[in-house]
Amino acid sequence: MQSYLDFEKPVADLEGKIAELKALAATDQAVSIDEEVTRLASRADEALVDIYRKLTPWQKTQVARHPQRPHFSDYVTGLIADWVPLAGDRKFGEDAALQAGFGRFNGQSVAILGQEKGSSTETRLKHNFGMARPEGYRKAVRIMDMADRFNIPLISFVDTAGAYPGIGAEERGQAEAIARSTERLLELGVPNLAIIIGEGGSGGAIAIATANRVLMLENAIYSAISPEAGASILWRDAAKAQDAANNMKITATDLLGFGVIDGIISEPAGGAHRHADQVLSGTREAISKFLKDFEGRSRLEVREHRREKFLAIGVNLS
Length: 318
Known about the structure:
The protein is α/β, with parallel strands linked by helices. Helices cover 50% and strands 15% of the residues.
Protein backbone atom coordinates (compact mmCIF):
# COMPACT_ATOMS: atom_id res chain seq x y z
CA MET A 1 0.00 0.00 0.00
CA GLN A 2 1.37 3.37 -1.04
CA SER A 3 2.25 5.75 1.80
CA TYR A 4 1.84 9.44 0.92
CA LEU A 5 3.82 12.40 2.21
CA ASP A 6 2.00 15.57 3.27
CA PHE A 7 2.89 17.50 0.13
CA GLU A 8 1.62 14.63 -2.04
CA LYS A 9 -2.01 15.19 -0.97
CA PRO A 10 -3.24 16.19 -4.48
CA VAL A 11 -1.92 12.89 -5.83
CA ALA A 12 -3.36 10.95 -2.88
CA ASP A 13 -6.80 12.47 -3.51
CA LEU A 14 -6.76 11.57 -7.20
CA GLU A 15 -5.52 8.04 -6.63
CA GLY A 16 -8.09 7.64 -3.86
CA LYS A 17 -10.84 8.49 -6.35
CA ILE A 18 -9.44 5.92 -8.78
CA ALA A 19 -9.53 3.28 -6.05
CA GLU A 20 -13.14 4.18 -5.24
CA LEU A 21 -14.16 3.86 -8.89
CA LYS A 22 -12.48 0.48 -9.20
CA ALA A 23 -14.21 -0.71 -6.03
CA LEU A 24 -17.56 0.47 -7.44
CA ALA A 25 -16.94 -1.32 -10.73
CA ALA A 26 -16.12 -4.51 -8.87
CA THR A 27 -19.56 -4.54 -7.29
CA ASP A 28 -21.49 -3.35 -10.36
CA GLN A 29 -20.26 -4.73 -13.68
CA ALA A 30 -22.65 -2.45 -15.57
CA VAL A 31 -20.70 0.64 -14.52
CA SER A 32 -18.11 1.75 -17.10
CA ILE A 33 -15.15 3.46 -15.42
CA ASP A 34 -12.34 3.08 -17.96
CA GLU A 35 -12.55 6.59 -19.39
CA GLU A 36 -12.78 8.29 -15.99
CA VAL A 37 -9.97 6.17 -14.53
CA THR A 38 -7.73 7.03 -17.47
CA ARG A 39 -8.48 10.73 -17.04
CA LEU A 40 -7.81 10.68 -13.30
CA ALA A 41 -4.64 8.62 -13.72
CA SER A 42 -3.35 11.14 -16.22
CA ARG A 43 -4.08 14.01 -13.82
CA ALA A 44 -2.36 12.13 -10.98
CA ASP A 45 0.75 11.57 -13.11
CA GLU A 46 0.85 15.23 -14.11
CA ALA A 47 0.43 16.33 -10.48
CA LEU A 48 3.24 14.01 -9.38
CA VAL A 49 5.61 15.34 -12.02
CA ASP A 50 4.75 18.92 -11.11
CA ILE A 51 5.26 18.32 -7.37
CA TYR A 52 8.61 16.54 -7.77
CA ARG A 53 9.90 19.10 -10.24
CA LYS A 54 9.99 21.76 -7.52
CA LEU A 55 10.67 19.93 -4.25
CA THR A 56 12.11 22.05 -1.47
CA PRO A 57 15.11 20.78 0.56
CA TRP A 58 12.75 19.90 3.43
CA GLN A 59 10.47 17.95 1.10
CA LYS A 60 13.51 16.11 -0.26
CA THR A 61 14.43 15.29 3.32
CA GLN A 62 11.02 13.68 3.74
CA VAL A 63 11.44 11.73 0.51
CA ALA A 64 14.92 10.58 1.58
CA ARG A 65 13.40 9.25 4.81
CA HIS A 66 10.36 7.61 3.19
CA PRO A 67 9.85 4.20 4.84
CA GLN A 68 9.16 2.53 1.48
CA ARG A 69 12.33 3.82 -0.13
CA PRO A 70 14.71 1.01 -1.23
CA HIS A 71 17.15 0.11 1.52
CA PHE A 72 20.60 -1.47 1.54
CA SER A 73 19.16 -4.99 1.40
CA ASP A 74 17.18 -4.10 -1.74
CA TYR A 75 20.31 -2.87 -3.52
CA VAL A 76 22.25 -5.98 -2.55
CA THR A 77 19.44 -8.26 -3.72
CA GLY A 78 19.03 -6.36 -6.99
CA LEU A 79 22.68 -5.72 -7.85
CA ILE A 80 25.00 -8.14 -6.06
CA ALA A 81 25.34 -11.86 -6.80
CA ASP A 82 26.85 -14.44 -4.43
CA TRP A 83 26.46 -12.05 -1.48
CA VAL A 84 28.34 -13.29 1.60
CA PRO A 85 27.77 -11.08 4.66
CA LEU A 86 30.42 -11.12 7.38
CA ALA A 87 29.71 -10.45 11.05
CA GLY A 88 31.62 -9.15 14.04
CA ASP A 89 34.49 -6.73 14.59
CA ARG A 90 36.72 -9.34 16.32
CA LYS A 91 36.91 -7.01 19.31
CA PHE A 92 33.49 -6.68 20.94
CA GLY A 93 30.61 -8.07 18.90
CA GLU A 94 28.30 -7.76 15.93
CA ASP A 95 26.43 -4.64 14.82
CA ALA A 96 23.42 -5.24 12.59
CA ALA A 97 23.01 -1.61 11.52
CA LEU A 98 26.13 -1.63 9.37
CA GLN A 99 26.19 -4.57 6.96
CA ALA A 100 29.42 -5.73 5.34
CA GLY A 101 30.62 -8.52 3.12
CA PHE A 102 31.65 -9.62 -0.34
CA GLY A 103 29.87 -10.48 -3.55
CA ARG A 104 30.00 -10.13 -7.31
CA PHE A 105 28.85 -7.23 -9.44
CA ASN A 106 28.48 -8.23 -13.10
CA GLY A 107 30.88 -11.07 -12.38
CA GLN A 108 33.53 -8.91 -10.69
CA SER A 109 34.39 -9.39 -7.02
CA VAL A 110 33.45 -6.41 -4.85
CA ALA A 111 33.46 -5.59 -1.15
CA ILE A 112 30.21 -4.08 0.12
CA LEU A 113 29.39 -1.83 3.07
CA GLY A 114 26.07 -0.23 3.91
CA GLN A 115 23.66 0.86 6.60
CA GLU A 116 20.40 -1.07 6.76
CA LYS A 117 17.43 0.75 8.31
CA GLY A 118 14.93 -2.10 8.13
CA SER A 119 11.49 -2.10 6.56
CA SER A 120 9.26 -3.35 9.40
CA THR A 121 9.07 -2.79 13.13
CA GLU A 122 10.97 -6.01 13.77
CA THR A 123 13.77 -5.33 11.28
CA ARG A 124 14.06 -1.65 12.24
CA LEU A 125 14.68 -2.66 15.84
CA LYS A 126 17.09 -5.39 14.73
CA HIS A 127 19.11 -2.94 12.62
CA ASN A 128 18.75 -0.07 15.11
CA PHE A 129 17.21 2.13 12.39
CA GLY A 130 20.51 2.14 10.51
CA MET A 131 22.44 3.82 13.34
CA ALA A 132 25.67 1.89 13.82
CA ARG A 133 27.57 1.37 17.05
CA PRO A 134 31.41 1.36 17.26
CA GLU A 135 31.62 -2.34 16.47
CA GLY A 136 29.86 -1.65 13.17
CA TYR A 137 32.60 0.74 12.06
CA ARG A 138 35.31 -1.59 13.34
CA LYS A 139 33.72 -4.38 11.31
CA ALA A 140 33.78 -2.05 8.30
CA VAL A 141 37.53 -1.51 8.81
CA ARG A 142 38.00 -5.29 8.90
CA ILE A 143 36.29 -5.56 5.51
CA MET A 144 38.36 -2.64 4.16
CA ASP A 145 41.55 -4.42 5.23
CA MET A 146 40.48 -7.60 3.42
CA ALA A 147 39.46 -5.70 0.29
CA ASP A 148 42.80 -3.88 0.25
CA ARG A 149 44.77 -7.07 0.80
CA PHE A 150 43.08 -8.92 -2.04
CA ASN A 151 42.79 -5.92 -4.39
CA ILE A 152 38.97 -5.87 -4.43
CA PRO A 153 37.06 -2.60 -5.14
CA LEU A 154 34.82 -1.33 -2.35
CA ILE A 155 31.26 -0.04 -2.73
CA SER A 156 29.37 1.68 0.11
CA PHE A 157 25.61 2.28 0.26
CA VAL A 158 25.02 5.11 2.72
CA ASP A 159 21.68 5.49 4.50
CA THR A 160 21.77 6.63 8.11
CA ALA A 161 20.56 9.50 10.26
CA GLY A 162 23.92 9.23 12.03
CA ALA A 163 25.95 6.95 14.25
CA TYR A 164 24.17 5.70 17.38
CA PRO A 165 24.66 8.24 20.23
CA GLY A 166 23.88 5.90 23.13
CA ILE A 167 25.91 5.77 26.34
CA GLY A 168 27.27 2.30 25.59
CA ALA A 169 28.40 3.34 22.13
CA GLU A 170 30.20 6.38 23.52
CA GLU A 171 31.84 4.27 26.23
CA ARG A 172 33.14 1.87 23.58
CA GLY A 173 34.72 4.69 21.56
CA GLN A 174 32.21 5.77 18.94
CA ALA A 175 34.16 8.84 17.82
CA GLU A 176 37.44 6.90 17.61
CA ALA A 177 35.80 4.11 15.60
CA ILE A 178 34.37 6.61 13.10
CA ALA A 179 37.73 8.35 12.79
CA ARG A 180 39.57 5.05 12.23
CA SER A 181 37.06 4.02 9.57
CA THR A 182 37.43 7.35 7.75
CA GLU A 183 41.21 7.15 8.00
CA ARG A 184 41.27 3.62 6.59
CA LEU A 185 39.19 4.66 3.60
CA LEU A 186 41.67 7.43 2.80
CA GLU A 187 44.52 4.89 2.90
CA LEU A 188 42.93 2.31 0.59
CA GLY A 189 44.92 1.31 -2.47
CA VAL A 190 41.80 -0.05 -4.14
CA PRO A 191 39.15 2.22 -5.68
CA ASN A 192 36.04 2.85 -3.62
CA LEU A 193 32.64 4.24 -4.48
CA ALA A 194 30.04 5.65 -2.07
CA ILE A 195 26.38 6.09 -2.99
CA ILE A 196 24.07 8.07 -0.69
CA ILE A 197 20.76 6.25 -1.23
CA GLY A 198 18.70 8.01 1.46
CA GLU A 199 20.08 9.92 4.42
CA GLY A 200 23.78 10.67 4.66
CA GLY A 201 23.91 11.89 8.21
CA SER A 202 26.92 13.16 10.16
CA GLY A 203 30.11 11.19 10.81
CA GLY A 204 28.08 8.01 10.70
CA ALA A 205 27.82 8.52 6.95
CA ILE A 206 31.29 9.95 6.34
CA ALA A 207 32.82 6.89 8.02
CA ILE A 208 31.90 4.79 4.97
CA ALA A 209 31.49 7.56 2.36
CA THR A 210 35.06 8.87 2.10
CA ALA A 211 35.54 7.58 -1.43
CA ASN A 212 37.20 8.14 -4.79
CA ARG A 213 33.76 8.90 -6.14
CA VAL A 214 30.69 9.94 -4.12
CA LEU A 215 27.29 9.80 -5.79
CA MET A 216 23.84 10.71 -4.50
CA LEU A 217 20.38 9.72 -5.52
CA GLU A 218 18.47 12.78 -6.68
CA ASN A 219 16.24 12.97 -3.61
CA ALA A 220 18.83 11.89 -1.04
CA ILE A 221 20.35 14.26 1.52
CA TYR A 222 23.91 14.53 2.89
CA SER A 223 24.93 16.74 5.80
CA ALA A 224 27.12 17.03 8.86
CA ILE A 225 24.05 17.26 11.09
CA SER A 226 20.35 16.53 10.75
CA PRO A 227 17.95 19.45 10.17
CA GLU A 228 16.36 18.76 13.55
CA ALA A 229 19.69 18.85 15.39
CA GLY A 230 20.77 21.93 13.45
CA ALA A 231 17.57 23.73 14.40
CA SER A 232 18.05 22.77 18.04
CA ILE A 233 21.51 24.33 18.02
CA LEU A 234 20.73 27.45 16.00
CA TRP A 235 17.27 28.32 17.29
CA ARG A 236 16.92 26.09 20.38
CA ASP A 237 13.86 24.68 18.65
CA ALA A 238 13.80 21.37 16.74
CA ALA A 239 10.44 22.40 15.28
CA LYS A 240 12.36 24.77 13.00
CA ALA A 241 13.88 21.78 11.17
CA GLN A 242 12.22 22.87 7.94
CA ASP A 243 13.97 26.25 8.10
CA ALA A 244 17.28 24.51 8.83
CA ALA A 245 16.89 22.09 5.91
CA ASN A 246 16.08 24.91 3.53
CA ASN A 247 19.30 26.72 4.47
CA MET A 248 21.82 23.93 5.06
CA LYS A 249 22.56 23.01 1.41
CA ILE A 250 21.94 19.32 1.93
CA THR A 251 20.50 18.34 -1.46
CA ALA A 252 22.33 16.55 -4.26
CA THR A 253 22.15 19.59 -6.54
CA ASP A 254 23.69 21.88 -3.92
CA LEU A 255 26.46 19.43 -3.02
CA LEU A 256 27.34 18.73 -6.64
CA GLY A 257 27.77 22.46 -7.15
CA PHE A 258 30.14 22.63 -4.16
CA GLY A 259 32.16 19.65 -5.37
CA VAL A 260 31.32 17.62 -2.28
CA ILE A 261 29.82 14.87 -4.45
CA ASP A 262 30.75 13.79 -7.97
CA GLY A 263 27.43 12.92 -9.56
CA ILE A 264 23.69 12.44 -9.20
CA ILE A 265 21.69 9.30 -9.95
CA SER A 266 18.32 10.51 -11.18
CA GLU A 267 15.01 9.40 -9.70
CA PRO A 268 11.75 9.33 -11.69
CA ALA A 269 8.95 11.65 -10.61
CA GLY A 270 7.52 10.19 -7.43
CA GLY A 271 10.85 9.13 -5.97
CA ALA A 272 12.76 5.88 -5.55
CA HIS A 273 10.01 4.41 -3.37
CA ARG A 274 7.66 4.41 -6.38
CA HIS A 275 10.19 3.36 -9.00
CA ALA A 276 12.68 1.03 -7.30
CA ASP A 277 13.49 -0.93 -10.48
CA GLN A 278 14.42 2.20 -12.43
CA VAL A 279 16.59 3.49 -9.59
CA LEU A 280 18.36 0.14 -9.28
CA SER A 281 19.00 0.22 -13.02
CA GLY A 282 20.50 3.72 -12.79
CA THR A 283 22.63 2.62 -9.84
CA ARG A 284 23.88 -0.40 -11.77
CA GLU A 285 24.98 1.88 -14.62
CA ALA A 286 26.76 4.21 -12.19
CA ILE A 287 28.67 1.35 -10.53
CA SER A 288 29.63 -0.12 -13.92
CA LYS A 289 30.99 3.24 -15.06
CA PHE A 290 32.96 3.67 -11.85
CA LEU A 291 34.61 0.25 -12.10
CA LYS A 292 35.45 0.84 -15.75
CA ASP A 293 36.89 4.31 -15.06
CA PHE A 294 39.23 3.00 -12.34
CA GLU A 295 40.20 -0.23 -14.06
CA GLY A 296 43.95 -0.59 -14.37
CA ARG A 297 44.88 2.31 -12.09
CA SER A 298 47.79 1.66 -9.74
CA ARG A 299 47.36 1.73 -5.99
CA LEU A 300 49.33 4.98 -5.84
CA GLU A 301 47.11 6.57 -8.51
CA VAL A 302 43.97 5.54 -6.62
CA ARG A 303 45.23 7.04 -3.36
CA GLU A 304 46.38 10.22 -5.07
CA HIS A 305 43.03 10.62 -6.84
CA ARG A 306 41.17 10.33 -3.53
CA ARG A 307 43.57 12.70 -1.78
CA GLU A 308 43.27 15.38 -4.45
CA LYS A 309 39.49 15.04 -4.53
CA PHE A 310 39.08 15.86 -0.85
CA LEU A 311 41.75 18.55 -0.78
CA ALA A 312 39.93 20.34 -3.59
CA ILE A 313 36.61 20.57 -1.74
CA GLY A 314 35.89 24.17 -0.78
CA VAL A 315 38.94 25.65 -2.50
CA ASN A 316 37.00 27.62 -5.10
CA LEU A 317 33.87 28.52 -3.14
CA SER A 318 32.89 32.18 -3.53
